[in-house]
Amino acid sequence: MIYTLENSNISIVASTYGGEIHSLKSKKDNTEYLWNGNPEYWKYHAPILFPIVGKVKDLKYRVDGKTYELPQHGLARISEFNLLTQNKESITFELVYSDDTLKVYPFKFSLQITYTLLDNGVKVTYTVNNLDDKNILFSIGSHPAFMCPIEEGLSLNDYYFKFNEKENAPIMLLNSHGLFTGETEDFLDNSNIIPLSKELFKNDALVFNNLKSNKISIESQKGTKSLTLDFTGFPDLGLWAPATGAPFVCIEPWYGHADFADFEGEFKDKEGVISLEVNGKFECNFIVTI
User: Annotated Gene Ontology MF terms (predicted)?
Assistant: First the structure.
């Protein structure tokens, strides 16, 4: 089911399938900021990553000695959510554990996604509730794709990422299977600008850990339109677009990340995994402004 929310400045469209937002549009000039999901490039818009971010090794992971399988980025983005609440300013979808989810993820949970309209953007809130009689384990993140170029007549190469702080930040290196090698590469040297180009993502995503910045923008010196994503609190940040080139870029705030290539431990020992106590609630949010 598809739902639309709007105020005087902004309209959003969101779906119960994957709990995914499909559109973020300015009503002032009808500019669309979110990727349209054209499958020629990438069929998603802004999937939620739960209960894993990225890949687990061989698509398998272990809990209490038992092996389970999950696809890349987990089960939420390919699950049907239920509408929980809706009003003029916000809408909340919920995914609750089932017999099917327990076969691939052995924890009882509720995952809620709330989209709240702002004057010039949207706040996206993720809430995980532990409905089990033991601690539950998970990672969580988002994978929104934004139109780039934003304005007609410009190209990807006219744009750049801009952090709100100058960074001395390496990137975590991925192998050809989407797993981290454990090595890093120097990337930002007292800079907050990353020029955009197709070649930027030739080796997969740029992944940063524990940046000083809490905001990143997509800007162009040739255009007048930009967007900013506030990822306060998220320890990991991925930047990605298809290596073959596409008219969008992704800004991905994460709690947790893909496996290291040599990881052989239990899920509880995986870097970035959250352990949530019985009856506990975990909440995080990010804000996109245009």
Answer: carbohydrate binding; isomerase activity
pLDDT band at 141 (very low <50, low <70, confident <90, very high): very high
d(CA 62, CA 110): 21
Give yes or no for a contact between 63 and 51, defined as CB atoms under 8 angstroms apart.
no
CA-to-CA distance for 269 and 250, rounded, in angstroms? 28
Structural domain of 71: 2-289
Residue 97 is predicted with a pLDDT of 98
- Say if residues 110 and 131 touch (Cβ distance below 8 Å): yes
What's the structural domain count of the chain?
Answer: 1
Residue 289 confidence class, pLDDT cut points 50, 70, 90: very high
Average pLDDT, the chain: 97
Domain containing 35 — which CATH number? 2.70.98.10
Tokens at 208, concatenated: 């940063």
Tell me the pLDDT tens digit for each residue of 4-59: 999 999 999 999 999 999 999 999 999 999 999 999 999 999 999 999 999 999 99
**Which pairing describes strands 10-15 and 2-6: parallel, antiparallel, or unpaired?**
antiparallel
Which of 19-52 are b and which e, b meaning 16 or more Cβ less than 10 Å from the residue's Cβ?
bbbbbbbbeeeebebbbebeeebbebbbbbbbbb
pTM over 0.85? The answer is yes
